UniProtKB/TrEMBL annotation:
PANTHER family in UniProt: RADICAL SAM DOMAIN PROTEIN (PTHR42731:SF1), SLL1084 PROTEIN (PTHR42731)
One example GO MF annotation: iron-sulfur cluster binding
Domain Radical SAM core: 274-516
CDD domains: Radical_SAM
Native source species: Pedococcus bigeumensis
Name under which the protein is recorded: TIGR03960 family B12-binding radical SAM protein
Domain of life, source organism: Bacteria
Length: 672
């Protein structure tokens, strides 16, 4: 039976759904989802198709992927174009995977249940490297060859994006291209090039299209570059191939400057099944210049670009009207740093007075928190716990990582919170930071005890709780710590065991302190994947062939499977897992991601690494003179911050203002 491109495979899928857990995640039809005609772009004079079709994948389970802002934004941006369509696909759980293989059902989209292989582009958004094995499952189920070199003109172009794409080398064998930075304008540019190539009758096939994309300077095509190695395993150089003229030595990241011009998502998706975030989210600014040395997200998203207070107000208004959610998350890397956060919180609280609409800041800096802000956030909604991230247990280690928060700051902040009626606080730390000793980590216990003692004093109550949550530190590309040695998993576990003992052994405070931590093993695998080069592709493939799936889920993760696969896959090479993880790099070493231009100057990063070793702190360049990190001049960008001085009028919700505003923004009669 011949398959017609773009037809639904749901008749094949439906009988399998009663045999799997949570079948609702595979049926689609969410509020605000979009299904477009397969030929929405029409045909050219010679009959060639003029539609560019994207399958967008968040390579994890539906419940994790569906609230993802990045995918939601690209889905909407692409579907607004008359000559493009975008549908979503997620990783299927092993129970459905087995049935799909047995009944020959291909990887499908949840929107119209079309086969992923029918699309022009499979775009994957990697926020973590632990999704790589899920990508291989999806490619295999889709009938797309795992290796880019084996694909034909009938296969989609496989494109990686997201934060992990800033080092695309470990998946260079499997992806045709990688795009780094903001996706809004980038996906439209790629759509334009594919559309033009199709309109011309697809000259030169797949390779010509990839060459065109690579020559834009903003799309990295691994197959057009050669990597040579030194005898000791280090990279000698990464260079464009001789037969690929016009391909740049370095590929630049994309930066959207005017966030108010991109008020997405306008119609946020409302998941059918339970998801990890039951709220509507608005990104209030992008980028961060605090300069925390461990934080890849802060480094690669520079410079800071704020959304205006009025732009935020309109997005909240429209999003609540479109979804019916009762909580709004004000997202960014450090939301309390918005230059008008107090006005935003008060304005939104005033506007939604008398409704059940709550506001939340997912990430609050210790030194940016104040009770006025907290009270505005909880005025209409429920009072949830507060989370703060000192990151390092001792004053010394906080200087190393440039997290400028003193113990006094933290105690003052929690005193204010407990005094204002909060009963519990969560503190987030990392273990395994550069130069860290047991003593640095054991100071976390002292800090937690002081927090409890302070809470009891200011509230006059005994039911004060503090949860200490600890993650293992993984060095990331494009940060000052990209050169450092990662702490081994056994050392990490030993250090955490000492800390747990120090907390538990204290009879006065131990029972009031919760302790959550991850063991060191997943961090070593994440470290291998985040700083690996092309040779790691064979490890990923071996793990996948050995049954590796959903490596970000502790119940599916197997450290032994990864280590055994690495032993096999790297056996004939001068490198091993320790070489990629617990080895310190030198200043002159060519790093696998050096040809991906995040805008940051490598010399500046190295100088900042030396400052870390000297325990020297560096201020936030938003409020001080420039430190020459390189981003602004190189990217032709600038820090975009307020304040605008405008206020949010409490105009709407319960009154007639909502219709007026929605009509003005053209969404009142939005059809779906």
């Amino acid at each position: 039976m011949t398959h017609t491109l773009g037809t639904s495979v749901f008749p094949l899928l439906e009988p399998l759904l009663e045999q799997v857990s949570k079948p609702i995640q595979y049926v689609g039809g969410e509020l605000n989802s979009t299904v477009k005609d397969w030929n929405c772009g029409g045909h050219g004079p010679d009959g060639q198709e003029l539609t560019t079709r994207w399958a967008l994948m968040y390579p994890d389970a539906y419940e994790v992927g569906v609230p993802n802002q990045g995918v939601m934004i690209l889905y909407e941006v692409l579907n607004e174009r008359p000559d493009a369509l975008a549908e979503r696909t997620y990783a299927v759980w092993p129970d459905l995977e087995a049935l799909m293989r047995e009944h020959q059902v291909p990887q499908f989209t949840v929107d119209a249940h079309r086969s992923v292989r029918d699309f022009d582009v499979l775009g994957l958004s990697f926020s973590t490297e632990l999704g790589y094995t899920n990508m291989l499952t999806a490619l295999d189920l889709a009938g797309i060859p795992l290796h880019a070199v084996d694909r034909t003109d009938d296969d989609p172009i496989v494109v990686a994006g997201g934060h992990a794409a800033f080092n695309p080398e470990p998946v260079a064998d499997f992806v045709d291209a990688a795009i780094v930075g903001d996706g809004e304008e980038a996906v439209l540019a790629v759509t334009h090039h594919i559309g033009a190539w199709k309109a011309e009758g697809m000259p030169g096939g797949r390779r010509e299209l990839l060459l065109r994309l690579a020559r834009t300077g903003g799309v990295y095509v691994p197959s057009l570059y050669d990597v040579s190695y030194l005898a000791d395993g280090r990279i000698q150089r990464v260079a464009p191939k001789a037969d690929a003229p016009g391909v740049p030595w370095r590929v630049s990241k994309h930066t959207v400057m005017d966030l108010d011009a991109w008020p997405y998502p306008k119609q946020p998706l409302v998941p059918l099944a339970e998801s990890v975030h039951e709220r509507m989210s608005v990104e209030i600014f992008r980028g961060c210049t605090r300069g925390c040395r461990f934080c890849q997200a802060g480094m690669i998203t520079r410079p800071v670009r704020e959304r205006s207070i009025t732009g935020i107000g309109e997005m909240v208004e429209r999003g609540l009207a479109a979804t019916g959610f009762e909580e709004v998350g004000l997202l960014s890397l450090s939301s309390a740093d918005h230059s008008e956060i107090a006005e935003i919180a008060k304005g939104l609280a005033d506007r939604y007075e008398g409704t059940q609409t709550g506001l939340s800041l997912p990430s609050t800096r210790v030194d940016a928190f104040n009770i006025d802000l907290a009270n505005e956030l909880t005025r209409n909604g429920r009072r949830s716990g507060l989370t703060f991230a000192p990151e390092g247990g001792s004053e010394r280690i906080r200087k190393v990582i440039n997290k400028m928060v003193s113990e006094e700051d933290l105690i003052k902040t929690v005193a204010a919170a407990y005094g204002a009626g909060w009963r519990q606080v969560k503190l987030y730390f990392m273990c395994g930071l550069p130069t860290e000793t047991d003593e640095d980590v054991l100071q976390i216990a002292d800090l937690a005890k002081k927090v409890i003692e302070t809470g009891r004093q200011v509230s006059g109550r005994r039911d004060i709780r503090c949860t200490v949550s600890i993650g293992g530190f993984v060095p990331k590309p494009h940060t000052p710590f990209q050169w450092c040695a990662q702490l081994g998993n056994e050392e990490t576990d030993a250090r955490l065991a000492k800390l747990r003992e120090a907390i538990r052994s204290d009879r006065q405070y131990g029972s009031s302190i919760g302790f959550r931590y991850h063991d060191g093993k997943p961090g070593i695998v994440e470290g291998l994947l985040s700083r690996g080069d092309r040779r790691i592709g064979r490890v990923i493939e071996q793990v996948w062939r050995d049954g590796g799936r959903f490596d970000g889920w502790s119940e599916h993760f197997s450290f032994d499977r990864w280590m055994n696969a690495a032993d096999v896959a790297l056996s004939e090479l001068p490198v091993d897992v320790a070489w990629y993880t617990t080895r310190e790099r030198g200043e002159t070493e060519v790093l696998p991601w050096d040809h991906i231009d995040s805008g940051l100057d490598k010399d500046w990063l190295w100088a900042d690494w030396q400052d870390a070793l000297d325990e020297t702190e560096v201020d936030d360049c938003r409020w001080t003179p420039c430190f020459d990190c390189g981003v602004c001049p190189q990217m032709g960008t600038d820090i975009e911050v307020g304040p605008t001085g405008k206020t949010l009028l409490p105009l709407t919700v319960l009154g007639a203002g909502r219709e007026a505003m929605l009509a003005a923004s053209g969404t009142a009669d939005h059809q779906h």
